[in-house]
């Protein structure tokens, strides 16, 4: 069978990616190798998404893509064609009150330098959208996918547990799934 | 760092993907979840000329039950399997240890199997459960059993023009008992050693014991347990643990020493078997 070369986007050619970011249609012009994290920052100016390790370890670049919290450094911008993306800027507009999770992070001293914070907020947002009634072990397991070098994590865990109670959200199922054995 | 430039294709059918792989050969890589491949590319450890993104290929995202077990398509995410449960106890037990929630949201089961990291959980799970990979190329289809799949660190029996389209993992029966244990330095790291055990018991008699280890050799390693006899009590767990520690050939690397790995093998194999063997089960020449 002969390959269809029209499928191939050459490395040197810019690609236009159309997607939805924080509820608004957006277009980005990228290289095939550009990560979603870099495209959000450089093309759309959404610099709330932080880029640190660029290899999926630190979690700072976490955003929601089609309802999953993912590493934006490990997703190519071209792969986000047609996707629904939510970044930290989508949690609350500048003229709105903070999102309950953001307020909880403030109240519980869950950040110091703030570099890891956007990624943690998006992971927490996804977690709390899906579930309510979390226990501390589960929160610690999820938070372990993010590197924070300031807080020692206690404030972050406290904030997420508090936000779980404080954020009024109708959709999250009340019954927690049984805790997994794991790290 | 950023990856080196590469061509990118996002086919919508398996045939389109196979055509591209056949043409570009070893210069092409398949992109599924990307949670292992893209970090390697960012570190310039891999520089493929073409990425064939299979995420939009029709039919690869399905999960079905066949006569052989649970069949997961190539783009089924680890998080989706973990969320719903798989019906294969060892897979369910190992998945929480794979990466982190953020990487599991994108990472695929088949992708991790094909990446063939000898310290990773899922290749060893496949070996311990006796699963298989379904492979296609322009030349046809074939099934690769777990024991035949791995050829070395990062190397599988798949040719450059072949695409893994699905994995099949045998489902547990009422008599299946399994356990996954691992030791690593930090959550989310690959383990120094991981151990999976699957035992099947019929009427108090153990008719299958499989023990497999990650992080010990350059491929997932099956502990040779053929010919064991006796009661399925802690003494048997101890005996198999000693066999594993004696027969394994770990090496020193930058993460730890061979001696440390051998101790971990002995301890983890014993503990995993103690979880699944009961004193009231008998082991007549288990294979």
Automatic annotation (TrEMBL), chain A:
<feature type="domain" description="2Fe-2S ferredoxin-type">
    <location>
        <begin position="15"/>
        <end position="91"/>
    </location>
</feature>
<dbReference type="InterPro" id="IPR006058">
    <property type="entry name" value="2Fe2S_fd_BS"/>
</dbReference>
<dbReference type="InterPro" id="IPR036010">
    <property type="entry name" value="2Fe-2S_ferredoxin-like_sf"/>
</dbReference>
<keyword id="KW-0560">Oxidoreductase</keyword>
<dbReference type="Pfam" id="PF01799">
    <property type="entry name" value="Fer2_2"/>
</dbReference>
<dbReference type="InterPro" id="IPR002888">
    <property type="entry name" value="2Fe-2S-bd"/>
</dbReference>
<protein>
    <submittedName>
        <fullName>(2Fe-2S)-binding protein</fullName>
    </submittedName>
</protein>
<dbReference type="InterPro" id="IPR001041">
    <property type="entry name" value="2Fe-2S_ferredoxin-type"/>
</dbReference>
<dbReference type="InterPro" id="IPR012675">
    <property type="entry name" value="Beta-grasp_dom_sf"/>
</dbReference>
<keyword id="KW-0001">2Fe-2S</keyword>
<keyword id="KW-0408">Iron</keyword>
<dbReference type="Pfam" id="PF00111">
    <property type="entry name" value="Fer2"/>
</dbReference>
<dbReference type="InterPro" id="IPR051452">
    <property type="entry name" value="Diverse_Oxidoreductases"/>
</dbReference>
<dbReference type="InterPro" id="IPR036884">
    <property type="entry name" value="2Fe-2S-bd_dom_sf"/>
</dbReference>
<keyword id="KW-0411">Iron-sulfur</keyword>
<keyword id="KW-0479">Metal-binding</keyword>
UniProtKB/TrEMBL annotation, chain B:
<dbReference type="Pfam" id="PF00941">
    <property type="entry name" value="FAD_binding_5"/>
</dbReference>
<dbReference type="Pfam" id="PF03450">
    <property type="entry name" value="CO_deh_flav_C"/>
</dbReference>
<dbReference type="InterPro" id="IPR016166">
    <property type="entry name" value="FAD-bd_PCMH"/>
</dbReference>
<keyword id="KW-0285">Flavoprotein</keyword>
<dbReference type="InterPro" id="IPR051312">
    <property type="entry name" value="Diverse_Substr_Oxidored"/>
</dbReference>
<dbReference type="InterPro" id="IPR002346">
    <property type="entry name" value="Mopterin_DH_FAD-bd"/>
</dbReference>
<dbReference type="InterPro" id="IPR016167">
    <property type="entry name" value="FAD-bd_PCMH_sub1"/>
</dbReference>
<dbReference type="InterPro" id="IPR016169">
    <property type="entry name" value="FAD-bd_PCMH_sub2"/>
</dbReference>
<keyword id="KW-0274">FAD</keyword>
<dbReference type="InterPro" id="IPR036683">
    <property type="entry name" value="CO_DH_flav_C_dom_sf"/>
</dbReference>
<dbReference type="InterPro" id="IPR036318">
    <property type="entry name" value="FAD-bd_PCMH-like_sf"/>
</dbReference>
<protein>
    <submittedName>
        <fullName>FAD binding domain-containing protein</fullName>
    </submittedName>
</protein>
<feature type="domain" description="FAD-binding PCMH-type">
    <location>
        <begin position="1"/>
        <end position="174"/>
    </location>
</feature>
<keyword id="KW-0560">Oxidoreductase</keyword>
<dbReference type="InterPro" id="IPR005107">
    <property type="entry name" value="CO_DH_flav_C"/>
</dbReference>
């Amino acid at each position: 069978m002969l390959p269809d070369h029209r499928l191939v986007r050459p490395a040197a050619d810019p690609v236009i990616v159309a997607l939805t970011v924080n509820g608004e249609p957006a277009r980005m012009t990228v290289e095939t190798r550009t990560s979603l994290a870099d495209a959000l920052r450089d093309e759309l100016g959404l610099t709330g998404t932080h880029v640190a390790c660029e290899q999926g370890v630190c979690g700072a670049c976490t955003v929601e893509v089609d309802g999953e919290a993912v590493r934006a450094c490990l997703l190519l911008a071209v792969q986000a064609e047609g996707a629904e993306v939510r970044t930290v800027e989508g949690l609350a507009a500048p003229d709105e009150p903070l999102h309950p999770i953001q307020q909880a992070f403030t109240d519980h001293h869950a950040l110091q330098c703030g570099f890891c914070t956007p990624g943690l907020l998006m992971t927490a947002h996804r977690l709390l959208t899906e579930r309510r009634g979390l226990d501390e072990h589960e929160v610690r397991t999820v938070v372990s996918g993010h590197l924070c070098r300031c807080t020692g994590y206690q404030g972050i865990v406290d904030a997420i547990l508090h936000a779980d109670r404080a954020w009024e959200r109708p959709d999250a199922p009340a019954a927690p799934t049984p805790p997994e054995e794991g790290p | 760092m950023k990856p080196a430039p590469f061509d990118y294709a996002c086919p919508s059918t398996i045939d389109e993907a196979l055509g591209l792989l056949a043409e570009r050969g070893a210069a092409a890589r398949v992109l599924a979840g990307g949670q292992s491949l893209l970090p390697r590319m960012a570190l310039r450890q891999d520089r493929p000329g073409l990425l064939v993104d299979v995420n939009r290929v029709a039919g690869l995202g399905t999960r079905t039950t066949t006569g052989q077990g649970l069949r997961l398509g190539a783009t089924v995410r680890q998080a989706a399997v973990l969320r719903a449960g798989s019906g294969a106890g060892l897979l369910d037990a190992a998945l929480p240890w794979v990466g982190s929630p953020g990487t599991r949201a994108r990472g695929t089961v088949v992708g991790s199997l094909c990446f063939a990291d000898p310290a990773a959980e899922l290749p060893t799970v496949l070996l311990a459960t006796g699963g298989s990979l379904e492979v296609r190329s322009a030349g046809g289809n074939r099934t690769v059993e777990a024991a035949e799949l791995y050829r070395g660190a990062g190397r599988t029996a798949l040719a450059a023009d072949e695409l893994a389209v699905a994995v099949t993992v045998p489902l547990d029966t009422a008599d299946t008992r399994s356990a996954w244990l691992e030791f690593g330095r930090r959550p989310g790291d690959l383990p120094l050693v991981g151990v999976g055990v699957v035992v099947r018991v019929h009427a108090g008699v153990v008719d299958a014991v499989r023990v497999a280890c990650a992080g010990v050799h350059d491929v997932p390693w099956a502990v040779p347990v053929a010919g064991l006899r006796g009661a399925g009590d802690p003494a048997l767990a101890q005996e198999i643990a000693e066999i594993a520690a004696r027969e394994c050939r770990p090496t020193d690397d930058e993460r730890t020493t061979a001696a440390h790995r051998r101790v971990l093998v002995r301890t983890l194999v014993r503990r995993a078997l103690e979880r699944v063997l009961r004193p009231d089960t008998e082991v007549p020449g288990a294979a």
